[in-house]
Amino acid sequence: MTAQKIFTLRTAQPACASCRHRAILAMAHKAGLEFQGYDPDYHKIGIYRAPCGHTVRRQFGQIERIANGHCKLRCETCHSGKEAEEAADRGWQLMGSDPAGNPNYRIYQHGCGHSQRVARTNMQSGRFQCTACGEGWATAPSHLYAIRLELPTGLKVVKLGFSRDPELRLRHQLLLQPGIQAELLRTVPQPTGHAALCQEKALHRALKTSHPDAIIPHEHFRDWLAVKTEIYGIEVASVILKHLDDIRKK
User: Fold this and answer.
1) pLDDT for the residue 141
2) Does pTM surpass 0.70?
């Protein structure tokens, strides 16, 4: 039994509410969810229990896409917990979503008590500072580094540079495409970013003078690396490492 408007009976093919309900239950089961009921405010949304145990609200069309493997369910509660853990690892507390409505930003509170708007990707990578108590790159501790790279083209090179976090530089910023073999050969701590910059520039000047043929032109690696300069042939790797070791001993 189902109730229908007379106008619907006169002008269209009425849908069976019971059949629709059974289809919704079956689709939820196929998607790995448990149907809990209908949203009281919008007829196209259902309430479901996710495998994690949390309750989620989704449109029936999205549940069908999840069931057919076109997308995955993301539990907002679990996702928020993950974001809170990311912030806590860096000494921040997740306070809420961006007041400006940008889905890429959140409001965080630093351990010093200061709150600010930060992109989630920056919170994950650590590439930001507390505007109240943080140090800028020039005064914050840094590192000189040397990275060995082998491109899928067969080209073997060394990248010489400086960074506050060389491991992050290698894994998340330097490589443009997969398939590149990379190894962090050496890091040398520096008291400040300014000191690291000065040492790096001096090293590049020395290499340009002593081994000008080792400088690799940009066109040989522009499709693979997110830099334009500071790339040398692998044959001068030992020279670069000796320079770095000499700096470490000072």
Assistant:
1) 87
2) no
